[in-house]
């Protein structure tokens, strides 16, 4: 059981490392005791893994030399992109992450694709579980014949009342 836990923890650690790096608000605070190479290496590796998905190659590359030269140029561009992002200033704490990456897609094309993959994952299932819990309180044994529209209206009213929306 311990070996499985350690295996899963390592997987989670990689995902958390990448997600923390891609958060422009707190990227410098998340890695206080790590060197720049320790921080950037997992990001570069993940981009290298997804390179065929991120970079579209020109239609015609005839020789092996041209393909090799093109691949090394793309790797250097991506490496510069990672370093440029790391050295950029932190973003304001009030920003929406996905909107920030949408705005900076032209500046960081490979990282923005990575950000959409990692930052769109909800960190917890709490909101979903809360919704089911509230729905269970509204649709109970004494109200088991509510049709879908009535149940939806009750859930909306509950949400609006809890948020003081008039």
Beta-strand content estimate: under 5%
Low-confidence stretches: 53-57
Give the termini separation. 52 Å
Broad structural category: mainly alpha
Q: SSE order in H/E notation? A: HHHHHHHH
Multimerization state = single chain
User: What is the residue-mean pLDDT, rounded to a whole number?
Assistant: 76
The percent of residues in helical segments reads: 55-70%
Task: Please describe the topology of this protein.
Layout: H1 2-21, H2 36-49, H3 51-54, H4 64-87, H5 97-103, H6 109-119, H7 126-138, H8 148-162
What brief labels describe this structure?
mainly alpha; 3192_t:CDS:1; 166 residues
Task: Report on the architecture of this protein.
The protein is an all-alpha fold and 166 residues long. It folds into two domains: 118 residues, no CATH class; 37 residues, no CATH class. The chain is 65% helix and 0% strand. The radius of gyration is 23 Å and the shape is elongated. It starts with a helix and ends with a helix. About 3% of the residues have low confidence.
In brief, what are we looking at here?
This protein has about 170 residues and is mainly α.
């Amino acid at each position: 059981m311990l070996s499985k836990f350690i295996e899963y923890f390592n997987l989670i650690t990689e995902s958390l490392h990448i997600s923390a790096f891609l958060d422009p608000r707190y990227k410098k605070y998340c890695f206080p005791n790590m060197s720049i190479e320790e921080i950037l290496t997992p990001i570069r590796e993940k981009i290298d893994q997804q390179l065929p998905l991120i970079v579209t190659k020109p239609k015609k590359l005839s020789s092996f030399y041209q393909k090799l030269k093109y691949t090394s140029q793309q790797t250097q561009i991506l490496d510069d992109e990672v370093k440029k992002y790391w050295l950029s200033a932190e973003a304001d704490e009030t920003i929406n992450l996905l909107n920030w990456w949408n705005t900076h897609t032209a500046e960081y094309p490979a990282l923005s694709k990575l950000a959409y993959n990692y930052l769109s994952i909800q960190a917890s299932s709490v909101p979903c579980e809360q919704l089911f819990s509230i729905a269970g309180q509204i649709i109970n044994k004494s109200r088991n014949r509510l049709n879908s529209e009535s149940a939806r209206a009750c859930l909306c009213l509950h949400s609006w009342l809890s948020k003081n929306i008039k």
